[in-house]
Design a protein that fits this description.
The protein is an alpha+beta fold and 134 residues long. It contains two helices and seven strands, in the order H-E-E-E-E-H-E-E-E. The radius of gyration is 14 Å and the shape is globular. The chain starts with 5 loop residues before the first helix and ends with a strand.
Length: 134
């Protein structure tokens, strides 16, 4: 599927930096439980944080689910490393950086939790991206 929106770009970015996961965004899967994989992410709708000239800053909540705590930490580390590569313009395998995507930041994360019944580890993280409007 071709990337047509900012949510598509973020989904593809997450897939390329953590290749063992199945990332979707809110318009593809309304809930994380609809993604049939043990390693999965869902990107929520953006919150606009502000603008400056032709740059708009948006925050995204991303739910990350992994089969174990070490796998969850690997996913988080891959996201941090991927954002660093994005910001210094380093190549990311199989990811073509969209011209409108300027920079990213890892803002925060909730406390990681293990689900009692399924033993799946989950955490919600907040990512911020700057986009060029023209």
């Amino acid at each position: 599927m071709a990337d047509d929106s900012e949510l598509d770009y973020i989904r593809t970015f997450l897939l390329r930096i953590h290749t063992v996961t199945t990332p979707k965004h809110i318009t593809e899967a309304r809930a994380i439980k609809l993604i049939n994989d043990t390693s999965k992410m869902i990107v929520g709708a953006p919150e606009i944080m502000g603008t400056y000239l032709d740059i708009i800053t948006k925050r995204y909540k991303v739910d990350v689910y992994e089969a174990s705590e070490p796998l969850l930490m690997t996913a988080i580390n891959n996201i941090v490393d991927g954002i660093n590569k994005l910001n210094i313009r380093e190549d990311i395998t199989s990811f073509t950086r969209p011209g409108i995507l300027l920079n990213g930041r890892f803002i925060s994360g909730t406390i990681a939790k293990e689900s009692g019944r399924t033993k799946v580890w989950k955490q919600q993280i907040t990512l911020e991206f700057e986009w060029c409007t023209s």
